[in-house]
Design brief:
The complex is a heterodimer of chains A (about 120) and B (about 290). With about 120 residues, chain A is an alpha+beta fold. Helices cover about 25% and strands about 25% of the residues of chain A. In chain A, a hairpin with a 2-residue loop joins β2 and β3 (about 35-40). The longest helix of chain A is centred in the N-terminal third of the chain and has 10 residues, at about 20-30. Chain B is an alpha+beta fold and about 290 residues long. Chain B has helices at about 25-30, 85-115, 135-150, 175-185, 195-215, 240-245, 255-270, 275-285; strands spanning about 5-10, 20-25, 40-45, 45-55, 60-65, 70, 160-165, 185-190, 215-220, 225-230, 245-250, 250. Chain B is globular, with a radius of gyration of 21 Å. Classes of the chains: A alpha+beta (about 120), B alpha+beta (about 290). Chains A and B meet through β1, α1, β3, α2 and β7 of A and α2, α3 and α5 of B.
Amino acid sequence: MKTQKFPNNQVVVRGGESSPETLKKACAKDVRNKRGHISARSILKNRRVDFLAESSPFPNGTISFISVGEVRGLINIQDHWDVIDDPSSSPNHVAILCPYDQLTDKQAADLSENFMLLTNYWRK
Amino acid sequence: MDKDIIIPIDFNQLYPETMHPLISEEDVVLFALTEGMIVKVKQGNDQWKGIINCDSNLHLCFVVIQEGTYQDLTFPEGLSFTNKEGYKNHIIWLEENLMPNRLWLFNNFIKLAQENYLQVTDVTHSDRLIQNPNSLQQISQIIKSSVLEILNNSANVKPRANIRNTLIDENEILNSYIWFTQATGIEIKEIPKGIYDLMLDVSLYFSKVIKYNNDVDWIFFDDKLWLKGDCIQPDNSFLVPFKFGFVQENVINPFGLVLLYFLDIFYKGEEYEFTLEKLYHWVIRR
C-alpha cells in the first residue's frame, strides 16, 4: 500500500448518501489490521468535486463529499482518523481509515455530519 | 425476477477493476442469488436492474447493471401527468416533497460553487437561494459554467432536440429525463443524464421565485403543469416560447421556459443570450 499523505483540502467523494448507518456498515465490511476502511474516491491534491465526479463517474443520483481535513478533524484523544490511498479496487479509490474495526453511533454520526450531499449532475 | 425483492448495494464497494457493485455474502444466501439471475438493486434514492455474476476464484458476487433502467426514487411509483384524479395530490407532492428535497441539494451545489469546489469563476457570495429575482443572475452564471464544463468533458456530445407528438407510453415518471420529456413534449438527445437533474432543479427554483414574489398558482391542463396568474404577461416580441406552446394567456410552462434557457446554452455556448433573470422579467409584468 502506498503511504501518500493527502493534503487537507483534497476532496473525498462517495456515491449516494453517507448516512451514519451506511458508514457503520461500510467500516465493518472492510477490516484490515484491526481498523475499518470506508470506500471512497479521491484524486491527489484535487479539491474540485466536479472534476472528481467526471473523472471517476458514479451512477448514483446523489453523491456525498467531505475533505481530507474534515476527516482528520474528527480526531480526539482516543480516535485517529485519516484518508489513505487504496488503489486495489478501482481507479481513484481511497479509504477513510476508521479508528477501530467498528464505529460507535456517535463516531458514525460525527463523520456523517461532515459529508455534504449533492445531486449528481455529472452522471452520464 | 421477483419484483418484491430489492437487494441493497453500494456503488462504493466494487468488483476489482470494474464499476460493478458487490453483493454481500449474507445477501447471496438470504435472496438465494445465482449467476445469471436478473434482480432489482437499490442504493439510497436510486434503483437499477441488473444481472448477477460471480467470481468463484475470489468468492465474490456482483451486479452488472443494465442500461436504461435507472429509477430515481425521488419520484414515487405511479406518478403520472395524465392521471386526472391525482392532479391535486400531485401539486401537493410537488410543493411539499419534491421542491424542498431537491432545492436543499441545489442550495448545496450553489454553496460549493461559491466556495470554489466547482470550476466556476467570479462567483459572488450574495443572493444565494433567497427566492429573490436578483438571485437568478448569479444562478445563471453558475449554471452556464457548469453545463459548459460537463458538455466539454463529455465526448461526442451534440445535443439534438426532437419534438415528441405523443407522451411516453407508460405515462409514468421515473426520473428527471422522463419528467422533462413529458412536461415539455421535447426530448433532448445525447446529453448526460445529470443535465436533466440540473434542468429540473433550476425549473423548481425558477418556479419558486415566481410563486414567492407573485400571486400565481400551479394548475394542470393539457396533461402538463403550468403556473397561472394575472401578473403573467409575457412580452410577445419573443416568439419562440409561443411557438413551442410554453406560454398562453396568463399561464406559462416553467419547465419549457427553462428548457429553452438550457437549449440556448447548448447551442450558443459562451454567446448565449438568456439569463434566468431576463426570463423572469420577460414573463412577469411590472
